[in-house]
Amino acid sequence: MTGSCGSLPEGNIMIMDTQEYYYRTLKILQKTPELTQRQIAEKLGVSLGKGHYVVKALVDVGCLKIRNFQKSDNKTGYMYILTAKGLREKARLAKRFLKYKQEEYKRLQKEIRSLKGEVEKN
Fold first, then answer.
1. Of 14, 32, 53, 78, which residue is 20 to 30 A from 39 by alpha carbon distance?
2. Rounded to two decimals, what is the model's pTM?
3. Three-class SS string for the chain?
4. What is the pLDDT of residues 55-64, one digit of tens each?
């Protein structure tokens, strides 16, 4: 898998959810790298623990680097910087996420047609 970060999981629907978190986290941090892990978790709609897990996984495989910076209230904060690998991984995940969502959309259209048929019969 040339160009991907380390060994982020791939595959089934449950893992696709994890990949969605990776993609969304990279997207969020590319725009606002100074967010706290709590803010990242809130934007993802997950617990602080899950948010930490996602960020740590991205750091561990080399997609993100953490830098210290001084906040205006004299406390040290962190900035999450996407690496070159992180940018490539974000693009790769975006393609996979788009394909997954398009397939999901087709499945939903089919289910909607079926449900409409059931409703019309009653």
1. 14
2. 0.74
3. CCCCCCCCCCCCHHHHHHHHHHHHHHHHHHHCCCCCHHHHHHHHCCCHHHHHHHHHHHHHCCCEEEEEEECCCCCEEEEEEECHHHHHHHHHHHHHHHHHHHHHHHHHHHHHHHHHHHHHHC
4. 999 999 999 9
Domain ranges of the chain: 13-121
Whole-number percent of the chain with pLDDT over 90: 67
Q: What is the rounded distance in angstroms from the CA atom of residue 80 to the CA atom of residue 109?
A: 39
- Give residue 12's identity as a one-letter amino acid code: N
Strand partners, 67: 79
The answer regarding whether domain 13-121 maps to CATH 1.20.1730.10 reads: no
Rounded-to-integer distance, Cα 80 and Cα 35, Å = 8
